[in-house]
Design brief:
With about 160 residues, this protein is mostly helical. It has one domain. The chain is built from 5 helices and no strands. It has helices at about 1-35, 45-65, 80-115, 125-130, 130-155. Helix 1 packs antiparallel against helix 5, helix 2 (about 45-65) runs parallel beside helix 5 and helix 3 (about 80-115) runs antiparallel to helix 5 (about 130-155). The longest helix has about 35 residues, at about 1-35. The chain is elongated, with a radius of gyration of 20 Å. It starts with a helix and ends with a helix. About 20% of the residues are buried.
Length: about 160
């Protein structure tokens, strides 16, 4: 289980690093071509828009995986005992349902049925849209791994 956890962590961090690095390189290239060569690059704006989407979607999956996502704990912090546990389970079920329906199912349908191409780079929008089911699967996998670790620790008495 720890090996899968480490692999998932490293894979998401690698994808985020690639996306963020490409944003830096793309931005630097755009500045260089615009100010030094006086001939702005035509594809970098679109490329950087796609990389920003990829970075943010993989980053959001990583936040869910690390349990560092934005949460409103107004009610959750006031509850104790069984009601708090029931609310936590309800929240987790809602999150997993949302991730599956919107990201995995909806994003997958969108990626499969997309027939358009980007106007400048001429790549299929499927390449852009595939990040939705990918980030949804990564977030769900991360949450499920956390549940397994939590319950195995509780069973072991830690």
């Amino acid at each position: 289980m720890k090996a899968l956890d480490k692999f998932l962590d490293n894979a998401m961090r690698f994808l985020m690093a690639i996306a963020m690095g490409s944003l830096v390189v793309g931005g630097t290239w755009q500045i260089f071509t615009r100010w030094i060569l006086k001939n702005p690059s035509t594809f970098t704006e679109e490329f950087m828009r796609y990389m920003l989407i990829w970075a943010s979607m993989i980053g959001s999956a990583y936040c869910f995986y690390k349990d560092k996502h934005l949460a409103l704990d107004l009610v959750k912090d006031k509850l104790k005992g069984t009601p708090a546990m029931c609310l936590s389970v309800f929240i987790e079920v809602c999150i997993l349902t949302f991730l599956f329906v919107v990201f995995v199912y909806g994003g997958g349908r969108m990626a499969i049925s997309s027939t358009n191409y980007s106007p400048v780079m001429h790549i299929p929008f499927k390449v852009l849209y595939i990040v939705l089911p990918l980030s949804g699967i990564l977030a769900i996998l991360g949450r499920v791994l956390k549940y397994i670790q939590y319950f195995s620790e509780r069973k072991a008495g830690k």
